[in-house]
Amino acid sequence: MLLRTIDESRPRVQLIVDGATVEAFEGETVAACLLRHDMAVTRLTPSGRKRGPYCLMGACFECVVEIDGKANVQACLTAVCDGMSIRRGLP
């Protein structure tokens, strides 16, 4: 596991990531959730290189995903919500 939360007693929510149900802690970012679940690759470049959360503060745009049908959302700046649907840019 790459990241661990300090307070695992926080309420949990359910997300759908690429069709699979994933559990997240209320208030954490989408990027933190993806990293914790070993789903760090969020997209591929046109040349096929893997990209994912890098700076975790919104400066690099490497972590963009589709959330609830909206494309190019920065996972590091977006808090999870129960029932959120996330699609990573992977084939």
Question: What would a concise description of this structure say?
Answer:
The chain has 91 residues and is mainly β.
Protein model, in words:
The chain has 91 residues and is mainly beta. The protein has one helix at residues 30-36; strands at residues 12-17, 20-25, 43-44, 50-51, 64-67, 70-74, 85-87. The two termini are 24 Å apart.
Task: State the shape.
Answer: globular
User: What would you call the quaternary organization?
Assistant: single chain
Would you identify the CATH architecture?
Roll
Q: Which class of secondary structure composition applies to the elements?
A: mainly beta
Number of domains: 1
Please report the number of helical segments: 1
| Fraction in beta strands | 25-35%
Distance between the termini: 24 Å
Q: What's the rounded overall pLDDT mean?
A: 92
Care to count the β-strands? Answer: 7
User: Strand-and-helix sequence, N→C?
Assistant: EEHEEEEE
CATH topology: Ubiquitin-like (UB roll)
What level of helicity do the residues show?
A: under 10%
Q: Calculate Rg over CA atoms.
A: 12 Å
CATH class: Alpha Beta
Provide the spatial order of strands within the biggest beta sheet.
2-1-7-5-6
Contiguous low-pLDDT stretches (5 residues minimum) are none
> What is the makeup of the main sheet?
5 strands, mixed
InterPro entries: 2Fe-2S-bd_N, 2Fe-2S_ferredoxin-like_sf
Keywords: Oxidoreductase
GO molecular function: iron-sulfur cluster binding; oxidoreductase activity
Protein name: Putative sarcosine oxidase subunit alpha
